[in-house]
Amino acid sequence: MRLIVLLLIGLSGLVTGACDRQNADAPQAAPAEAADQEASGKGVDRSHKGEMTPMAMFKNPDGGDINLAKFKGSPVLVNLWASWCAPCIAELPTLQKLEEAQAKDGKLAVIAVSQDMAPKASVDAFLTSKSISRFAAYHDPDMGLSSALGVQVMPTTILYDSAGKEVWRYTGDLDWSGAEAAKLLAEINRAAAR
After folding, report:
1. What's the first-to-final CA gap in the chain, in angstroms?
2. What is the greatest pairwise CA distance in the chain?
3. pTM for this predicted structure
4. In 10 A of CB 161, how many CB atoms?
5. Class of 42-193 per CATH?
6. How many Cβ atoms from other residues are within 10 Å of residue 131's Cβ?
7. Beta-sheet pairing, 156-160 with 19-20
């Protein structure tokens, strides 16, 4: 009977296919991917539009304390990710391409904040092993940012306008160099024109 219960618990993880923040204290191994990510609520969520950035503190790439208020005055795209989240890892290279392009024109800051509870050194080593740059070296081991934002599934990426107000959030992984991302990111220009 106990074996059946354990099998059912394991299968439920395969069906959901999301990186659930509530299971973050589980061993830092990548969960199996599910075929149907739509079941996890993947896509754009505009229900938080207009909400201000939370004041939750996290660590900048140099280890100092920071919060999202530091980015006020320019739009910022904030990605919440973890090394144990396979969809997070899959999208980081496309976020890096976006960050590199945005760094050249300076219109949008792109940061990725690790929600790993592991020490920063291990997160940095993970990023180095994947050839991911400093834009992803922000670290929130207490998951205060994801808690303040009510984020339960990773990756989740949130776009804030220059006033620090949420425009939208995208739950699940996305190719940030693709057409869907370009369409979503164009909204920041429309928000700035108002």
Report:
1. 61
2. 62
3. 0.80
4. 19
5. alpha beta
6. 9
7. unpaired
Per-residue tokens: 166 = 């949420």
User: Is the bond preceding residue 61 a cis peptide, omega within 30 degrees?
Assistant: no
Residue with tokens 């990023």: 127
Q: Which pLDDT tens digit goes with each residue over 9-50?
A: 333 333 334 576 544 443 343 333 333 334 457 999 999 999
In whole angstroms, give the CA distance from residue 152 to residue 150: 6
CB atoms within 10 A of CB 186: 10
Q: How far apart are CA 114 and CA 192, in angstroms?
A: 28
Tell me phi and psi for residue 126, to 5 degrees: -60, -45
Which residues lie below 8 Å from residue 130, measured CB to CB, with a gap of 6+? 89, 92, 93
Higher pLDDT, 7 or 115: 115
Residues in the chain: 194
Angle between helices 179-193 and 86-105 (to 10 degrees): 50
Q: Which residues contact 46 (CB under 8 A, 6 or more apart)?
A: 168
Using the structure block, give the residue that is written with the tokens 């299971």. Answer: 23
Alpha-carbon separation of residue 43 from 26, 46, 134 (angstroms): 26, 10, 26
| Interatomic CA distance for residues 27 and 129, integer angstroms | 19
Q: Within 17-149, where are the H helices?
A: 86-105, 120-129, 144-149
